[in-house]
Write a structure and sequence with these properties.
about 220 residues, alpha/beta, Rossmann fold, Arc Repressor Mutant, subunit A, 2 domains, 5-stranded parallel beta sheet, about 20% strand, binds calcium ion
């Protein structure tokens, strides 16, 4: 595999690069985010090792910009501290995995192999269907430029729809994605919540398919 290593500390960058090369891989080093963006857009890397602490653009911002520019190369983030906040921010910025410093090269390689197996399919952090946008991390929803307040259940149901735009979803399918087994009263709860979503987001979005269920207009 060919890996882009984004790290400003020369010793750390050289260590990772040397390890990869000794394993028979190819590795390029970028010392800052801007350079990483340029390289990642110009070359089809199999994976990117991205340090959080960088001069200029942070690792988080670099990752976000990569995803926004359509680069879906798997990203492994390196976090300096054993900080939960850093790991959460990294994953929510579109990273696929993280490793906290100090780490062993054996673990770094194993994580890279696992990431490369998944490939560079699109996996946007936000869901967008038409003019509706849903951010699972911040749990916010917009229709056009207007933010819409949803209850947790309404949010879960909308997310179930947005992960399958244009598909007819039966009431049972919607129940299975947004409600758990502990929920007893399953009779018409989906219809009730679709009505709420229509009131908040617009009737035109949720089509009733007679005898089958509902469809989110794609
Ligand atoms: Ca660094």
């Amino acid at each position: 595999m060919r890996v882009l290593v984004v790290e400003d500390e020369p010793k750390m960058a050289a260590l990772v690069r040397r390890g990869l090369v000794e394993e028979g891989h190819a590795a390029d080093v970028a010392r800052e985010g801007e350079e990483a963006l340029w390289l990642a857009e110009a070359h089809p890397y199999d994976a990117i090792v991205l340090d959080v602490m960088l001069p200029g653009l942070s690792g988080f911002e670099t990752c976000r910009r990569l995803r926004n520019s359509g680069v879906w190369t798997p990203v492994l983030m390196l976090t300096a501290r054993d900080s939960v906040d850093d790991r959460v921010a990294g994953l929510d910025a579109g990273a696929d995995d993280y490793l906290t410093k100090p780490f062993s090269l054996a673990e770094l390689f194993a994580r890279l192999r696992a990431l490369v197996r998944r490939g560079d399919v699109e996996r946007p952090t936000e869901l967008v269907v038409g003019d509706v946008r849903l951010d699972p991390a911040s749990r916010r929803v917009w229709r056009g430029s207007e933010q819409v307040q949803l209850s947790p259940k309404e949010f879960a149901l909308l997310e179930a729809f947005m992960r399958r735009p244009g598909q007819v979803l039966s009431r049972l399918q919607l129940l299975e994605h947004a409600w758990d087994f502990a929920y007893e009263n399953r009779s018409n709860v989906v219809d009730v919540y679709v009505r709420y979503l229509r009131q908040k987001l617009g009737r035109d979005l949720f089509e009733t398919v007679r005898g089958a269920g509902y469809r989110l207009a794609a």
